Amino acid sequence: MQYELTTPCTAADLAPLKAGDTVLLSGVVYTARDQAHKRMLEALDKGEKLPFDLEGSAIYYVGPTPERPGEVIGSAGPTTSGRMDAMSPRLLDLGNKIMIGKGKRDAAVKEAVVRNGAVYLAALGGAGALMAQSVKTLEVIAWPDLGCEAVRRLTVEKMPLTVILDAHGGDLYTSGPAAYLETVK
């Protein structure tokens, strides 16, 4: 199935999605990679406010390249999500609903996705120029000293994504290969 979603999202918005579905995502998406995640957790530990509201948020694990003249953003392909695994469950428990990246996630992230009615979506790795076409506006909102890893607020339109982990425990990295093997018997 294909769904069109607009952020912010609730657990009810995400409940129909199943691993393997496609999503065209619109609305506000925040960028945050390793260093930004570390700073967010440090801020939380100190009781400080985060640079954006986690409730219903979408976080894209991307460090875009500099934009060329006339462009909103440079290449914006996903980074490996596993580097955020140790930090993601806490953010999910605080209201983050959509994570966007590439690659497998660990058991703690999978449990947090189910517990919070969230999803993990895959962006097309190696297709940063295609992903960038969905970005309509960009604003650096926190930690500009991190360069490409600074937190940015993106406005996206119909960003093409695939559901990897759904809120019901579905995992495309498990079900996909199994379904394929059934077809070649």
UniProtKB/TrEMBL annotation:
UniProt keyword annotations, A-Z: Lyase
GO molecular function: hydro-lyase activity
Limits of the Fe-S hydro-lyase tartrate dehydratase beta-type catalytic domain: 4-175
Classification via InterPro entries: Fe-S_hydro-lyase_TtdB-typ_cat, Fe-S_hydroAse_TtdB_cat_sf
Coiled-coil annotated residue ranges, if any: none
Superkingdom of origin organism: Bacteria
SUPFAM superfamilies: FumA C-terminal domain-like
Pfam families named among the record's database cross-references: Fumerase_C
Family per record: Belongs to the class-I fumarase family.
PANTHER family, per database record: L(+)-TARTRATE DEHYDRATASE SUBUNIT BETA (PTHR43351), L(+)-TARTRATE DEHYDRATASE SUBUNIT BETA-RELATED (PTHR43351:SF2)
Name assigned to this protein: Fe-S-containing hydro-lyase
Lineage of source species: Bacteria, Bacillati, Bacillota, Clostridia, Eubacteriales
